Amino acid sequence: MYAMEAIYANDECIKPDNPTPSTNYTGQRSSKRSFYLGVILSLSLLTVFLLVGLITLSFFYHNLVEHVSAEAEKRDLLNKNISAVSNQLSSMTKERDLLSKKTEELKTNKQCPAGWSSFSCSCYLLSGSSASWDAARKDCRVRGADLVVIDCTKEQEYLSKLTKGETWIGLNDEEEEGTWKWVDGTPLNLKYWAHGQPNNGGGNPKWGEEDCAHIWTDGKALWNDRSCRDSLPWVCEKIP
């Protein structure tokens, strides 16, 4: 009996008065807490960055929308201007075509006086007599014309067929020696002078001052200067 009580007495658990938690367990809890705090902080920072990004993106998007809208307005205005210019060009083209048609009709329907020949837009009259250059011009002006002004190659070719021999044309350098002008005041640009001409008589007193021009049909029509007092046929020109 006493032996069994001794055994039970030895089997009783003896607990300390102040139990101390395990050091490993405490460290694990602290580590987890730090981890969670780090995650929360990271998520908070990420949220802030995302919010800032969204605000920035919204700002740029707003500016982009305004820019696109402004460009669209410019495009619409440009299209309107292009349309207006296109309409104006179309109208001007129609006016040009109408004017060209009327011009052709005038060319076709123009009437030269009896005895005058027609070429291009002008009427021409070859005189049946001879006179000085001044007298020839006076006769043309009485007829509402003037001595012929040659301003294109085709007209020169036409006159080479119309005239025979030497014939006065509306060209002189009476105002200033060497400065040849047509009777309408235009300077001489197109030239068909014969070789060595104009030479103002070559200094020979026999020919005197040669200040007036005539067309010389001898094989091919060329020009020569001659004394304005000489008597030659002439060609008058006028627009009907």
UniProtKB/TrEMBL annotation:
The chain crosses the membrane at residues 35-61. The keyword Transmembrane helix applies. PANTHER family: MANNOSE, PHOSPHOLIPASE, LECTIN RECEPTOR RELATED. InterPro entries: C-type_lectin-like (IPR001304), C-type_lectin-like/link_sf (IPR016186), C-type_lectin/snaclec_domain (IPR050111), C-type_lectin_CS (IPR018378), CD209-like_CTLD (IPR033989), CTDL_fold (IPR016187). The keyword Thylakoid does not apply. This is C-type lectin domain-containing protein. It comes from Oreochromis aureus (Israeli tilapia). Keywords: Disulfide bond, Lectin, Membrane, Transmembrane, Transmembrane helix. Residues 119-237 form the C-type lectin domain. It comes from the Eukaryota. SMART domains: CLECT. GO terms for molecular function: carbohydrate binding.
